[in-house]
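Quick one: structure tokens for this chain, please?
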Amino acid sequence: QNDSCLKCSFSFFQNGYPARRRSLVDDARFETLVVKQTKQTVLDEARQRANDSSIDHEIDFDDKPTQKPDEQNDDDNGLTEEEVVLANAIADGPEAERAIQRAALILRLREGMNSLSRVLKTIDKYQGVVVHLETRPNQKENGQLDALVKIDMARANLLQLIKGLRQSGTLEHITLIGEDNISAKNPWFPRHASELDNCNHLMTKFEPDLDMDHPGFSDKEYRERRKQIAEIAFAYKFGDPVPYIKYTETENKTWNAVFTTVLDLMPKHACVEYRRVFRVLQEEGIFTPNGVPQLEDMSNFMKKYTGFTLRPAAGLLTARDFLASLAFRIFQSTQYVRHTKSPFHTPEPDCIHEILGHMPLLADPSFAQFSQEIGLASLGASDEEIEKLSTIYWFTVEFGLCKEAGEIKVYGAGLLSSYGELFHALSEKPEHRPFDPASTAVQPYQDQEYQPVYYVADSIDDMKDKFRRWVSQMSRPFELRFNPHTGRVEVLDSVDKLESLVHQLNTEVLHLSNAINKMKAPSLL
């Protein structure tokens, strides 16, 4: 770094703010890049396996390929994503190869019905069963037909059928549309909180072992302490009590320094919801200047007021995994403490940031509902939508402002635990915009300096209503609901499920109606 950069970094540290910091938005973008690279690797490997396959079924076509081998492009010779999913399923073993798979093929037939006849004979040769067939004239090419053929066929035969059809001259084009479990368009996501045991993928950036700029990089004792606490979190399984951490005197001193600062700033600058819960935490003896609260105590407190609970995390989770936990009213929190030489900043969220910044508002019913709805929106979302949801989370849950009695107050956890940016956000220097999810979702953020733009909500309830309307326009082709009785996320994709939900809602409305009537009834006394 040059001198100006060093001076810039030093000035941020002076104000309790890091020159480099982690953000969920950056994580989401990094995750998208990794997913693309991984997907390409899987595609390449699957295509190589298909080309090297020892299964060699001959297809009897009179037609010869219309292109020379060196003229056929990768798209014609390779596998589509749907076919890669099928190839990976076959690789599970002989039983998987022989398993009967239903699939739909979209074909463009060069010679109309003559080509269709050859295709149907080939399907029969591979012991496939045609369960549905539609044809229509191609709108662009006279004499060609478009066909939709649904078939049941052993997976191994199906893959070889597609490969052979693609290499023949009978077809102009072939596309596999997977049904059942071969579709890459139906992503896995957790349906129950117990499945969060599988949602613990870590982002390794800014780890003290890897990042030379991390405050604890040269402190072997601190790095070892982080590893110990991480191992405890890795061993955690759904249903276990949150592990107890015996914090050291140094860690408790760091907590004291941050806690007393927040205690001083909170009455004037924090929103009323935060102040109210903060006082209750003090009254119950959980928030004291003497030591770091235990996550189990915080979890029990939150559960009592909103049903939110805590789950220990070994480090920084991927954006998708972190947001998914919110759908179940679970907040994944680290248990390690920032390095003592920089008590007012950390390049990644530590338990002090999460306990003081996030957890009080997760014990507020309205804010807890907003957090859960962000989580529900993330389940099954595309990578692009995860980035947008992460950006909204960044400008609300982390750096959000709201109106209160004609003044602007803070509810963002990043501001409540970073007094330098808190003063900046409430000054006249940055631009304050009304919260609008559509524009917030694409707003560039700053990770090297204070934000030039902050979004101000009229209230937490107003923010929640606007977010709901925006989420309804997402591309996800199904609707989700969290069932608080079973703790499961339900996909509302059948009439039976909708009828059951309507019955439950009618029961709730009846209870509300009865309560209103009783309140209106004259007293018998």
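The radius of gyration is 29 Å.
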